[in-house]
Amino acid sequence: MKSLSIFILCLLANSAFAQDVYKWVDENGDVHYSQALPPEQAGKAHDRLTSDGRVAERVKTAEELEILRAEQARQREQAEKARIQVQRDRLFLAAYPTEDDVRRTISSRRETVLSERDSVESLLEQSRGRFADTVEQAAELERRGKAVPGHLVTRISDARAGIRELTRRLDEIEARLVALDEELEAELERHRRLTGSG
Which phi and psi (to 5°) does residue 31 adopt? Predict the structure, then answer.
């Protein structure tokens, strides 16, 4: 019976020594240790230490947790972007095994844009011709001292607007051609980087 009492006392002593200790820093910068965390410290940063002094748990403040969550979200976003980029690069190389494949594809697109430019230039030339004819008709009527009819004034105004619109489309086509040239250079550089042939 005496040995059983000693055994129970040893167990109680060990459990007392094995109790966690809390460590925190107050607003004055003083470090505190206690076997019980004060209620006012519950929502604040503190460490729970094991009996041998190791940190068993580090409790962060709401601000620290928010910063940690934001950093984790940023890392997840970066990892997702990297994963998507790897997938895009793999698809790019599958679509364009050689540099010539890149050149052929962009050249085909360029031919389509050049064909569109030829059509717009032809329309612009026709529109300018019609505009010149209509203006000449109006000028001839004025030379004879006759009033220019409203339909002729409307045709001149419409022709002028049409020429402006076709000129704008030509400018936009030229910008697309420049963009295709830049895209070709960028895609060739990407191909060389991905294949190690640069």
Answer: -90, 135
DSSP letters, 27-78, are TTS-EEEESS--GGGTTS-EEEE-TTS-EEEEEPPHHHHHHHHHHHHHHHHH
**pLDDT (tens digit per residue) in 91-129:** 999 999 999 999 999 999 999 999 999 999 999 999 999
CA distance 124 to 163: 6
In a domain, 155, yes or no: yes
pTM, rounded to two decimals: 0.59
Please check whether residues 103 and 189 belong to one and the same domain. Answer: yes
Q: Please state the domain count of the chain.
A: 3
- Tens-digit pLDDT profile for residues 38-67: 877 776 778 777 777 787 777 776 677 788
Range of the domain at 68: 61-95
**Pair of tokens at residue 188:** 């060739």
Residue 112 counted as domain residue: yes
**175 pLDDT tier (thresholds 50, 70, 90):** very high
**Residue 93 near residue 195 (C-beta atoms within 8 A):** yes
